[in-house]
Amino acid sequence: MECPSCRADIPEESKFCDACGAALPGRCPSCGAAIRSGAKFCPACGKRLTASDRNPTAATPMAPIPASAERRQLTVMFCDLVNSTVLSARLDPEDMRDVLRVYHDGCASIVKRFEGFVAKYMGDGVLVYFGYPHAHEDDAERAVRAGLALVETIGATALPLPGELKLQMRVGIATGLVVVGDLIGSGAAREEAVVGETPNLAARLQGLAAPNSVVIATDTRRLTGGLFEYCDLGPATLKGFADPVRAWQVVGPSAIESRFEALHAAGTTTPLIGRDEELELLMRRWQQAKGGDGRVVLLSGEPGIGKSRVTEAIEERLSGEAHIRMRFFCSPYHGEAALHPIVSQLEHAAGFERDDNAESRLGKLEAILAPSTKTMKQATALLADLLSIGGDRYPPPNLDPQRRKEGTLKALFAQLAGLAADRPVLMVFEDVHWIDPISLELLELTVERISSLRVLLVITFRPEFQSPWTGDAHVTTLALNRLGRQHGAELVKCLTGNKQLPSAILDQITAHADGVPLFVEELTKAVLESGLLGDAGDRYVLNGPVPPLAIPTTLHASLMARLDRLAPIREVAQIGAAIGREFSYELLAALVPLPESTLQEAVDRLVHSELVFCRGRPPGATYTFKHALIRDAAYTTLLRSRRQELHARIAQVLEDRFPETVELHPEILAHHWSQAGLVEKAAFYAGKTWLHADGYQRRKQRLGGWEIGVISYKLGNRYRCEVDNVSPGARLARGEGPTRAEAEAQALNEARKLLARTRVRS
Fold first, then answer.
1. Which among 247, 173, 236 has a CA at the least distance from the CA of 203?
2. Guanylate cyclase domain location, by residue (predicted)?
3. pLDDT for 51-78, tens place per residue?
4. Which of 1-15, 256-270, 351-365, 497-511 has the lowest mean pLDDT?
5. What is the pLDDT of residue 56?
6. What is the distance between the alpha carbons of residues 298 and 721, in angstroms, rounded to a whole number?
7. Whole-number Å distance between alpha carbons of 42 and 60
8. Helices (H), 530-678
9. What whole-number distance in Å separates Cα of residue 595 and Cα of residue 603?
C-alpha cells in the first residue's frame, strides 16, 4: 500500500508509515490499532476519532509547508563528456543530438539508481546532487558508486550510429557546505540553485580527471574511508582556489567485506566500553552452542550504538579457540539482489580474483565445499549457477526457478551443517534491515533448524526491522542501550590517549552525544582536530573561549537523512529546534502557521518517527529531541537570516504570552534576543538572569590597585563568574567551571592579566 502523506511503498499490515511515521488511514493515529468504519473512539486507547481516521477514503495527505533555501552538507558530482567538441565537428547535428540523448538518459538512469538528483544538464555536462532534496546516511558513498557506474556504463553504451564510436567521460566529486533551494530562472530554465564552493570544486576536479576516471576531494575521501581503493594525485592547483587542493582518483570498490571495518582505518578501532554484560551473555550463548545446542542472538540498536563493534569484540574473544567464522553483510545497494550476502561471502571465502577464469573459480569453489558437503556434484552445480561461473563441468541444473531456489537454500544450509560437524561455527549476519527476500528465507531456514548444530548465529539490525523469531526458545533478544555519562567520559579518555579534556569540553561532548558511541567518537575527533585545544602533556587546555560544538562532517548526512524522512513537516522540527532541545506544544502552536489539527498531526508524526519524545498531551504537552545532535542538525539547516527571524518571534511571543517564563527564566529570553541580534534587549534580560540564578552572589574586593565587583551564579550544573571594574562599571572578564571556586579563579586570573596592561587606576 502507499502512504497518503509521503507516498512511500509500505506493507499492507502496517500501522504507521515506516518512511515518515504517519498514522495510516483506517488506523488509530495515536496507538495504530485497527478501527471500524463509523467508530467515534479508538477501542484500544480511547482516543476520539476524526472522520479521516474512520474512513480511509476521507484521508488526505498533509500539505507540506512551503520549502525555502537551507544550509546543507552536499556531495556534488560533475560529469563531462570527453572530446564533445571534436564529436560535434565530426557528426551531423541530428546525430550529435542522438548521442547526447543516449548520454543524458544513461546518466539519469544511473543517478536515479543511487538516489541522486540531476540538477542541471549543461550541453555535455551534468550536475548532480547527493544529499538534496533527500539526504541519505551514505551520500558520499552513493556519489562515488554512481560515478564508477557512469564511467563503466557510458563507455560500454551502444550508440545509434555506424562505426566504432565509443563515449568517454570524466567525473569530479566534492563534499561541503552549501546553500540550496533558491529557485532561479523561469519556465524550462527554472532550477534550484546551489551556492558555495563545492560545485565549483567538483567541476575543477572533473577537469583534472583522466578520461573514464573519477576524481574526488579530500572531504569526500574522508567520508568514504576504506570502501574504495584510491590513487593519491597529491595537491593540485585549481583555477579559482587560492591554495592547492588534494585530489584522489577512485580506482574501484575495495575488497573489504565489512562496512564497519572499511569505515574504520586499521588499528583505529576504539576499546569497547560499557558492554561487559552484553559480552558475557554472548559468551554464555557461545558455550551452549559449542556443546551442541545451537543458539541465535538478535542484536538490535539504533545506528552508531555499537552493534558491529560488539560482534567484533566476540570475534576477538574467540581468537584463541578452534572455530569457524562466517560473516555475511547485507547492503543498502543490493536489497533486490537475490542472496547477495551469501554470494559475497562465498566469493570471499573461495578467494576469487577479478581475473580468474571459469575453470579457476570452479576449482576454488570445489575446494571450500569438499570438506563440508556430501552431495558434492549437485551442490557445486547449484552454487556455481548462483555465482554465475558457467563452464561445461557443471551445467546449470535443469530445474524450474522455485525448485532451483529450494535446492540452493538446502545446499547452503547443508554446507553450514557440515562445517559445524567439524568445528563450532560463529555465524554473523549483519545489517539485516537491508536484507533481500531470498536471503531472509535462508536466514529463517537456518534459525528454524540451528538448535541441533554447534552454531552461534548473531543477527544484527536496526529497530525498524521486525524480527519474526523472537518467540523461539533458542533465540535471545539483546537490545543495545545508550552508554551512561561515566562510560561516555571513559570512551572520550580512550580517544584522547588518556589525556584529560577541559571539563567544559567534556561536558559538551557527553551532553551532545547522548550515550551513542559513534557520536562520542566523532565529536571527540572533531574537537581534537579543530585547533581549539593545546597539548599540555598529560592533559589538553583551551586555546580560547569555548564555542558551541559543530556537527562533525561524518555525522551530518545520517542526521539529515532522519529529518528528510519527514519532509512535509520538517519545518515544524526546525522551529522546535530554534526554541531549544525541549519545547512546549503551546509555544510551538503560537509560532507555526498551521491549523491546530494539522499541527497536532505534525507533532504526532515527529513522535512516531522517534525524533522527539513527548510528555503529556496537547495543549499541555512538552517535546524533547531524542538526540541533541538531531536538534542541532534541524537548527543548522536554517539560514542565518531565518534563525534570527525565528529567535525574534520566539522572544516576542514569550514576552507577550508567557509572563511566568519572563519572570522565572529571563536567561531564555536573553538567549533568544541575543540570537536575534537585538543586543539591548538581550543585555536587559541577561542582567535579570543574575538575580534569578541559583546561588547568586555579589561582592566587592581589591585586585591590585583596583576595586572590582565579583558576581557568581549557577546555571544548570555549571557556575559562572563575572568580574567588573566598579568605578567605570566596565566588564573585565568572565569565567565558567563545575565549581564556584574554579569559575571565580578563571575570571579573576583573566581580569588580573587585563588590569596589569592598564595604566589608569581607579
1. 173
2. 75-206
3. 445 443 333 344 444 457 889 999 999 9
4. 1-15
5. 39
6. 51
7. 20
8. 553-564, 570-579, 585-591, 596-608, 628-636, 640-657, 659-664, 666-675
9. 12
**253 closest CA partner among 333, 189, 176, 315:** 333
Q: How far is CA 171 from the centre of its chain?
A: 25
Query: How does strand 169-184 pair with strand 117-122?
Result: unpaired
The three grid cell numbers given for residue 103, joined into one nine-digit string: 548520454
411, three cell numbers:
545446499
Residue at 203: amino acid letter: A
pLDDT in tens, 398-424: 888 899 999 999 999 999 999 999 999
All residues at 6 or more sequence positions from 304 whose CB lies less than 8 Å from its CB, including other chains: 516, 517, 518, 519, 558
**Could you give phi then psi for residue 291, rounded to 5 degrees?**
-80, 0
pLDDT of 262: 81
pLDDT tier, 569 (very low <50, low <70, confident <90, very high otherwise)? confident
**Distance in angstroms (rounded) separating the CA atoms of residues 566 and 20:** 5
Q: What secondary structure does DSSP assign to 105-173, as a single string?
A: HHHHHHHHHTT-EEEEEETTEEEEEESSSS--TTHHHHHHHHHHHHHHHHHHPPPSSSS-----EEEEE
Per the structure block, which three cell numbers stand in for 635? Answer: 537548527
**How many other CB atoms sit within 10 Å of the CB of residue 606?**
22
- Secondary structure of 202-258 as H, E, C letters: HHHHHHHCCCCEEEEEHHHHHHHHHHEEEEEEEEECCCCCCCCEEEEEEEEECCCCC
Cα 571 to Cα 69: distance, rounded to the nearest angstrom: 12
pLDDT recorded at residue 585: 94
Task: Please state whether the peptide bond connecting residue 64 to the residue before it is cis, i.e. omega within 30 degrees of 0.
Answer: no
Q: How far apart are CA 38 and CA 201, in angstroms?
A: 59
- Contact indicator for 366, 379 with CB cutoff of 8 Å: no
Name the amino acid, one letter, at 479. A
User: Which one-letter amino acid corresponds to residue 606?
Assistant: L
Residue with cell 531456489: 405
CA-nearest of 472, 418, 412 to 438 is 412
Yes or no: say if 679 and 696 are a contact pair by the CB < 8 Å rule: no
CA angle 572, 175, 131 (to 5 degrees): 35
**How many angstroms separate the Cα of 731 from the Cα of each of 494, 675, 701, 724, 741?**
39, 21, 15, 4, 19
Report how far residue 18's alpha carbon sits from residue 11's, in angstroms, rounded to the nearest whole number. Answer: 9
Nearest to 327 by CA among 347, 304, 355: 347
Q: Read off the C-alpha cell for 302.
A: 539504533
